């Protein structure tokens, strides 16, 4: 969108708003909705114009404003209260007092395609949350704001920093892909919840560009029956967002919100602070220092000395931050840079690498209108700094929504959004030795200073430069943080125009067009680390994602008989998506260091990535809903999609798929109103059956097609953007995938709505999934695309709500959610038992998630599991086998070199507990969130133990910590760091003793061999160093249960009394304090690792790879004022 166009649209909008104000002719319907008994405000109450889908909800103070014709009737409702209808009849102020409902639930929610329905009518589960409740969280991502509030919805924060993605999963993983996340639909515009794979820096996806201050409500459509009308892209669920509209009023209303936030890192992992730097002996020698004494290489108790007799911290090349050195006692030693320093621990050196994050969020919204026209214009600015050094976010967002009645038959609703976001320097989440760099004697505040990480002649300190200190530990970490820049700029343009025509009193026709365009620019600026800053790199990437929709829909509402009503719609849509991406970078370094542009490349510029593709859908859909005596409701839907990705080059293919759904709800408390016990207030049974379909990636059907680097001429000397991939093929007649979902549910209310529950049972099966498998050698290709697989998810969701206490103006509302999902792979293809969800590369040393037949999506497997002793009848049968290393005089767990199951990422259950306490104008909210079960891969724990920084490296390190004391027969020296490894020697294992004789210890446990004098204790540092490295079997501590209970939110809000507000010429004024992620009440990760450390929002991944963010509490103060 060019600047001129933006100016024209803005000026037109101003003119339109002025027209709305100057020509206000209609009524402004405003008022306050309160409890008839307590007089307290009811936030989130629905206000609906009868006979239409137009409406609004009350704000946190119970206030509402709506545009309605003088002859219209307003319907007021809220869960647990009697629905009330009031005729406008020229009234501009309508205050409503709702009475508690003795037997009805008439809450209105927004469902598929933005249609509002009474919740009692629905045969499927929809959870509706007021936008004001989410906005108060002060989160960057709307996904994080939902955490802990909705049963069946799994939300996990990652380690990506300020802009990082948050994983969301509804009712389990349903496909063999790694992105099983729901889509977002904002006022009918679909936004993909894209994936971050954890390979570099997480800038987040465009969900972070949404402004929660614009949210009127958020509806979570969990079941397939609820989401079926959104088609293929809704196979994993829908988060449906309805934004705010303007209201008829006198003049212009202004609402200003200002929030200040602080993110406080309050706890890092637990470290041991007793021992400092030093390298495990016997494995290495210091070739740079001739006075390094080999006879001391078995002990970690003494410092090596240099030629001047000065003790120094053992600094083996590349291992200067290992922690197998002497115990801290305040000794004076030479530091890594050759200066004398006190040998001491720095307990907070990891937290010293972070900062207190700060943020300022400003939102200004103006609205107004007449009975015929309304507008709302908002501006949002977010300027924030994260806890990671130099990690920043800047966001400016504009939203305009205009409604206008062209005549009594035709109205228009126009929405436009523009968001510009810049993210800078999120942390690198790839394997970068980040946490284990912080040796216990590492002074972070010292080594992060520029004079220490910049070399004498520029770049990082070079070991072969005579002017440099002997060794500076890991200078590239601080060099990367402070000297390099990684930025992503995004522009998101979202627009929608909908024309609605009234044909009869029971039929309307709507035509809509919308677009969502995202333009992204990524820049990498890396200063050279060589002498005089030679080297360096500049990378520039651009991506474009343009989505356009054209829709039409006929909407029907008809009272067929006094007992039977009908509603429904018939519609169609056409979607077009275009994606492009290109990436160019310098090669061979920068000619002029510190100058970042492509022409500054030493060699010719490289085009290292790029693609361009498109896809389209054409669809028809319909629904028919029937209601009988306001107690029995039947809803049916059907949708058919024609997908371009399933169309062959010649126009053939299984490119059409359709999916029907049917749901039934019975409000039996209405049917048996006079015969139920008085303590039963409300009861409803519901059930549904639905089907969904899905396609594949664009161009996949065109066998052999592949994208080419446009600068690569290939073997024929012709440059092109595509080529022929001879390594892949596909089975004939690829079909769309198919998901069949079933659900039943029961809702009950008791004691005049003081207690209630909602239970759902579901089963989903997804078949015919397009997956790529290895092809037979004789086929001539390496891979083939086929239809295969059947993934099943079964589960239960429970929501329990209650009002345990209500005394006068005081009220306590509580809601407990519980969900359990069991994922099972029914079959894959042929006799195949496993399907990898990540690359199986890296020499088989990886811990990889798989889909397992008979098991689940997310079974963790490895080829480096411990080998087990197999000898029936032996007391050592089943124990891990130990491998003897004579150079270390130690034994270590041996690898099996066979694939083994070692974990499962799936949680046993999720739960949340949401409490709201209100007293007059004061409101307190306390939210707990819990996850029980599910394994997590901890790379930091693995290598941190290897380097000796964690408390687990202390047990056995000396006699004080349980180490065995003995005098070695090999060197006649006494040690106190001995341990007896748990395990058994394999058959045929021989050991050469100190006197040179060999003894066969096969079949013996280490304890048995020790008792017989065949082996000495293993040095603890030797054992831990090897057990945590890449040369032995998977340690028990590499994979751990990730269960936790968190105090997710504590907030206090106060609405300033109106008598004071009037004196300062305001309409409303409130202040609130919010604390998020305050602390964990329970955490099974060792060493107080942060559970929010996941490297990716891939639904297949539950691991961290070297970066453990500290536990961080987020605090915010918000002031809201209305003029």
From TrEMBL:
Classification via Pfam families: CarbopepD_reg_2, Plug
Keywords: Cell outer membrane, Membrane, Signal, Transmembrane, Transmembrane beta strand, Transport
Signal peptide from the UniProt entry: 1-24
Origin superkingdom: Bacteria
Subcellular location, record wording: Cell outer membrane
Domain TonB-dependent receptor plug: 119-238
Database matches in InterPro entries: Beta-barrel_TonB_sf, CarboxyPept-like_regulatory, Plug_dom, Plug_dom_sf, TonB-dep_OMP_SusC/RagA, TonB-dep_OMP_SusC/RagA_CS, TonB-dep_rcpt-like
Membrane topology: Multi-pass membrane protein
GO CC, one annotated term: cell outer membrane
Signal recorded as keyword: yes
KW Ribonucleoprotein (keyword) present: no
Entry-linked NCBIfam families: OMP_RagA_SusC, SusC_RagA_signa
Family: Belongs to the TonB-dependent receptor family.
Name of the molecule in the record: SusC/RagA family TonB-linked outer membrane protein
The species this protein was found in: Dyadobacter psychrotolerans
